[in-house]
């Protein structure tokens, strides 16, 4: 038998390097358990809102209430992630998430659900996510050494997208079989299971460093922003991320609109569209986990493809073609976001990783309230035009980032990631 080539050995090491670490394996397993429940809840919640109101604008308001706290508090959440023990904080966020999902399940099962219940509980979940999401990104760096960090972040994205594939499909099945309350109950259970996994982790590698002085959280936020705004490479990444996050990543608003008002899908077909989105994301996450350190070319190309695909989605009414396009847009979205997250962590000092991760969270997730409301307002007149305009704005943002990156490259101020 021929000996494996050095190149194949290097590729294998990149693929499973983080999984060789027991603490990361527990985190990865907990994520694989938890994320499908989150997607089940989002699928069931979106369908419940449209079933109760029939209004794309009301669905946009629910999305806004869920993501507005992330916009307002994610930078504070990043400062918290750099100051306190991340594992313990993550356990608390899972416990609060479980209470939120269980409360929603009880209200819906009782038949007393009103829109204000959904809006209030969505706001609670968003507040938890403002801390949870920067924590997750920074926590990976606590579990794996620097040389395994790109692989660890990519595998974290892989776990997220395994859930994105399984969750919506299960959500559609549960909706059809028993209704939304069961989906919310299952999500509460997955929150608890992830908390148990986190409780068993004993990190052997801790990337955090001790703080040398007492400062306020706002001072920590200012320090992180100052570092980001004085780094040419991070400036380029912020521009690209801002446009893609604001105009492209509000899938929880756009997918139900496309499913019900463009493709005219059934409940099961709605789950299928979400699953195609997740399957594309899963394939991209697996590919990125094998590709090593990200490049600026990969980031900009993925962002450009994302915008073009949104325009194509807006212009088709055929289910099979929409499924194919959602697969591709999911792949582009994950390639972009995972490469951005990895770049920020590699370019950031150890003691600022939570704060820089919170900027990614703010721009990709926290901007959803604005993007959802803009999309919802335009969709009241024409859904296809709202989705297409989002694609056009994504392309414009990538063009702006490319121009800035080109200027830095010409002046030799654009370092390698």
Structure overview:
The radius of gyration is 20 Å and the shape is globular. 82% of the residues lie in helices and 0% in strands. It is mostly helical and 417 residues long. It is a multi-pass membrane protein. One of its GO terms (molecular function) is transmembrane transporter activity. It comes from Pseudooceanicola nanhaiensis. Keywords: Cell membrane, Membrane, Transmembrane, Transmembrane helix, Transport.
In short:
The protein is an all-alpha fold and 417 residues long. 82% of the residues lie in helices and 0% in strands.
Roughly what fraction of the amino acids lie in strands? under 5%
* Elements, N to C (H/E): HHHHHHHHHHHHHHHH
Q: What is the rounded Rg?
A: 20 Å
Structural class: mainly alpha
End-to-end C-alpha gap: 38 Å
Query: How many runs of DSSP E, i.e. beta strands?
Result: 0
What is the tally of helical segments?
16
Summarize the amount of helix as a percent range. Answer: over 70%
Shape: globular
Q: Write down the overall mean pLDDT.
A: 83
Biggest sheet descriptor: none
Low-confidence stretches: 1-13, 205-210
């Amino acid at each position: 038998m021929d000996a494996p080539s050095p190149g194949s050995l290097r590729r294998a090491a990149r693929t499973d390097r983080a999984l060789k670490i027991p603490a990361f394996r527990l985190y990865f397993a907990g994520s694989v358990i938890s994320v499908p429940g989150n997607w089940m809840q989002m699928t069931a919640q979106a369908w419940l809102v449209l079933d109760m109101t029939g209004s794309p604008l009301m669905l946009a308001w629910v999305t806004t209430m869920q993501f507005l706290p992330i916009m307002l508090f994610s930078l504070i959440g990043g400062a918290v992630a750099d100051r306190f023990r991340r594992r313990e904080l993550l356990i608390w966020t899972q416990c609060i998430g479980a209470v939120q999902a269980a409360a929603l399940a009880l209200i819906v099962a009782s038949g007393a659900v009103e829109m204000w219940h959904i809006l209030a509980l969505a706001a609670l979940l968003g507040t938890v996510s403002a801390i949870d999401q920067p924590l997750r990104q920074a926590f990976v760096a606590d579990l794996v050494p620097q040389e395994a960090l790109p692989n660890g972040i990519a595998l974290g994205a892989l776990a997220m997208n395994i859930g994105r594939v399984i969750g919506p499909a299960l959500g559609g099945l549960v909706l059809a079989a028993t209704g939304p309350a069961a989906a919310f109950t299952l999500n509460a259970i997955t929150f608890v299971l992830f908390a148990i996994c986190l409780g068993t982790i004993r990190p052997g590698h801790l990337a955090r460093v001790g703080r040398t002085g007492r400062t306020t959280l706002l001072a920590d936020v200012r320090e992180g922003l100052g570092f980001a705004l004085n780094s040419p490479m991070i400036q380029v990444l912020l521009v690209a991320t801002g446009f893609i996050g604001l105009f492209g990543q509000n899938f929880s608003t756009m997918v139900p609109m496309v499913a019900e008002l463009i493709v005219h899908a059934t409940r099961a077909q709605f789950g299928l569209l979400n699953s195609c989105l997740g399957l594309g994301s899963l394939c991209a996450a697996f590919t990125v986990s094998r590709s090593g350190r990200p490049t600026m070319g990969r980031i900009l190309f993925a962002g450009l493809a994302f915008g073009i695909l949104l325009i194509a989605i807006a212009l088709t009414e055929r289910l099979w073609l929409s499924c194919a396009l959602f697969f591709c847009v999911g792949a582009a979205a994950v390639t972009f976001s995972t490469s951005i997250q990895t770049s920020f962590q590699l370019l950031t000092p150890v003691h600022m990783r939570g704060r820089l991760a919170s900027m990614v969270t703010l721009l990709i997730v926290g901007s959803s309230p604005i993007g959802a409301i803009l999309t919802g307002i335009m969709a009241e007149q024409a859904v296809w035009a709202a989705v297409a305009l989002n694609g056009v704005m994504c392309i414009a943002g990538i063009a702006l980032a490319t121009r800035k990156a080109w200027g830095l490259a010409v002046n030799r101020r654009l370092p390698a990631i």
